[in-house]
Amino acid sequence: MDRTRCNPAHPRRQFFNWVHRGIGVIAMILATTAVCIAAVHFLGIWPHKISQTTLSLMPLVVLLVMSAVFLCIDKFIDVDELNLSKVGYK
After folding, report:
1. What is the pTM of this model?
2. Phi and psi of 9, rounded to 5°?
3. Reduced to 3 states, what is the DSSP secondary structure of residue 25?
4. How far separated are the first and last CA of the chain, in Å rounded?
5. Which residues span the domain enclosing 32?
6. Structural domain tally of the chain?
7. Are 56 and 39 in contact (CB under 8 A)?
8. Where are the transmembrane segments (predicted)?
9. Is the alpha carbon torsion for 63, 64, 69, 75 positive or negative?
10. 9, 32, 48, 54: most buried by Cβ count inside 10 Å?
């Protein structure tokens, strides 16, 4: 992924951002699925049913909250020439 990253001012940067974000979301979905499978198949570890449910739902809740946070950040923080010069891209 690092080799395909372009300059923030490049016209195809939006495409890179969406592909990068999509790969991250797919990774989180796969990780959430793995945690849910572990919670369901290892029933002897959890003394209470609520522990299993909490473990299964927590990654999904974190994924949804973090997605909402990053969508808000993406919507309300504007990237301009001044911001790019602060992080060393110019």
Report:
1. 0.55
2. -90, -5
3. helix
4. 22
5. 2-86
6. 1
7. yes
8. 21-43, 55-73
9. positive
10. 32
